[in-house]
Amino acid sequence: xxxxxxxxxxxxxxxxxxxxxxxxxxxxxxxxxxxxxxxxxxxxxxxxxxxxxxxxxxxxxxxxxxxxxxxxxxxxxxxxxxxxxxxxxxxxxx
Length: 94
Prior knowledge:
Layout: E1 9-18, E2 23-24, E3 32-39, E4 43-48, E5 59-61, E6 67-70, E7 76-80, E8 85-93
């Protein structure tokens, strides 16, 4: 049986241009506890305090595969890829 879960209200959205050098998002808002991520190409991502960077050994986010991950207000997502991509980040409040 398929069940539906409420994962939160959609909030602010931003696009981050990702290349072979780690790029970070703007800090998340005060109500953000989860983020919805989608990338146009496979990327490696890291979530943490401002200044966080991603490397090739960071968590892999496959291309065109939406995923929701937990975070804390004020954190950022950093990403890096082997070529170039756009990472779309949508903040979600619970």
